[in-house]
Design a protein that fits this description.
Blueprint (H helix, E strand, L loop, with lengths): L4 E5 L12 H16 L4 E4 L14 H12 L15 H15 L3 E7 L3 H11 L4 E7 L5 H20 L18
Parallel strand pairs: 1-2, 1-3, 3-4
Length: about 180
């Protein structure tokens, strides 16, 4: 059976006890909103292990799974994990799972400050797929949000300057956002 729609949730961090960061919870909450609107969707949860974001014995995606199941997601609607270390790996490791499921429609969920870099990476690695984006809002002062966005823009520019992803105009397509 083919999965029509897959929601890829980009991971963030958890502490040494597996407690998810606020950013991770915001992304998962946004993903849950998309799931409730688009019945029949399945999830790919990203995030493995790393010094800066998960030093436990379980993948970050495992804690994300627990969070979503507790919210009411059917465990069967969560596909295999993409045990990634960063956003490029999120895309690279998720694509084979999406292909195996036969899905053509994918919604990528991340944070508002991270959306521009995410779009550039996923547009490159998911050529041929219909992509949509849902962004979780960070509840921080505007100046802090602007600082986070500038940092992400710098990272995106570095990826393009090093030829890791090509420069191209990004789509302005979001799921679950107010017009």
């Amino acid at each position: 059976m083919t999965t029509k729609h897959i929601i890829i949730v980009l991971g963030h961090a958890n502490d040494e006890e597996g407690n998810l960061s606020e950013v991770a919870k915001e992304r998962l909450d946004k993903a849950f909103e998309v799931y409730e609107k688009m019945k029949g969707s399945k999830f790919i949860l990203t995030g493995g292990f790393g010094e800066r974001f998960n030093m436990t014995d379980a993948a970050h995606a495992h804690y994300a799974r627990d969070y979503l199941v507790e919210k009411g997601v059917d465990d069967a609607d969560i596909l295999e994990y993409a045990e990634s270390y960063h956003t490029i790996e999120d895309a690279k490791l998720s694509r084979p799972i999406v292909e195996k499921e036969g899905a053509k429609m994918v919604t990528v969920v991340t944070s508002d400050f991270h959306i521009k870099r995410t779009k550039a990476i996923f547009e490159y690695y998911f050529s041929g797929f219909t992509l949509a984006y849902a962004q979780a809002k960070r509840n921080v002062p505007p100046e802090k949000l602007e600082q986070m966005i500038r940092r992400e823009d710098e990272k995106l520019l570095q990826l393009m300057e090093h030829g890791i992803i090509p420069y191209k105009r990004q789509r302005k397509e979001y799921v679950g956002e107010e017009e």
